[in-house]
Amino acid sequence: MSRLRLFFSIALCSALLALSLSPPLFAQRMLTVIHTNDLHSHCLGFSPNLDYSPLETGNDQTVGGFARIATVIKSERSKRKNPVLVLDAGDFLMGSLFHMLSREESFELRLLGQMGYDAVTLGNHEFDLKPDGLARIITSATEKGNPPQIVFSNAVFSDTSSEDDSLEKIFARGLVKPYTVVEKQGLRIGIFGILGKRAAQVSPFAAPLKFRDPAATAKEMVKTLREQEKVDLVVCLSHCGLAAGKEASEDEELVAAVPGIDIVVGGHTHTRLDKPIVKDGTIIVQAGSYGRYVGILDVSLEHNRPRVADYRLVTIDDSIPGDPGIQAAIEFFVPLIEERVLKAHNLGFWQAIARTSFDLKIGEKETNLGNLIADSIRWYINKDIKDGSSPKVVCAMESLGLIRAPLAKGKSGNLAVCDVFNTIPLGIGADNTMGYPLVSFYLYGSEIKKSLEVLTSIYPIKGSDYYLHVSGVRLKYNANRMIFDRVTDI
To answer: Which among 71, 175, 145 is positioned nearest to 332, based on CA atoms?
Structure first.
């Protein structure tokens, strides 16, 4: 053998040996993303909460519940040797009696930490208790538990008002970061969170804090994560949303405008996606709402670009035994709610205050539950008005968008305080107490007509949130007349 041939033989053997001892240059790697969104403080399974028995299976029809979700997270993690991320796309607050003590106890964030979430973002409802309320929530979670990392990148704090200063300090302390980098098994994953334009429009209590354009913000985050942090993968926790109309589907608009996002874990629109949307190489997922589903996304990484290897939505129902530790934590919180919130009203968390032989439903338009709530508002205000002490309220209105949960008759037909609260749980008053205040005022006939035109003209265009349930008034309208002039008789 010539010296030249010997040299090439040794070089070839050395190269083959080196390749055998190191991972392939473009080895296929796997990543699993477990995701939820819009949990809305639904720590318990529903409906009704009274029927929920998470430590037993096969004996109720309820869905959801943090204890069951925790079981799914543990189970899916145990099945895999590859990295697993657990993420939530916002609106983890506001929707049940548990949020009534969120500023003092922050039950939801503490539970998400115990359940093993890696990162969460803020949705519009996290701002329902104003910037200072959110600051208190995050502070409570940090002092009393080990919450997941909160990522949020498009907040703009006011230079002229001090009303968002406490929240700005929380951001400055790093309790909320614009992004985080998680390293698992040598894989660097950059995660950032944003609030969409439409979600920002329904965040009035966030003022004076404002929100930057989500696409412009996302471009900056991708650039930072790719060029400075040298991440292998970029994940966006997006509280923007999806919709049937292309122009209204913000998550799809986002990925079209911002190259470099690998995965979008979405929220806000409560969309149940049975399979991911793949647009311009970006994978978009969303898992309904209220913890009724958990998404399990397995991706293979080839040349550091993700491809969907498998996806499924797990229905969180009675077939899943709840995690005893998480359920014990939830049950520990109930007496605190009773003592600090319900006792003053002579109520108990599990107390049955009514019975029904049929379901009280919510839908896309008029419902029996909506009519009951509108009638209840008028009755409640009038019941304590003595003759001549004040004018009686003759008309009440409630928009369908504020009615958040139905009331199912369940096994017993009993309606408990915890279930009834879930129907209209949102809001904050001028006195900083929880719940929207009831407001009465005088209207001219022409103003009543304008109000009812919301039902005839805005609801058909904008959707079910704008459907008005009314009490004490009947109307006739002609849907073929000019917009805002369709009511013909009241």
So the answer is: 145
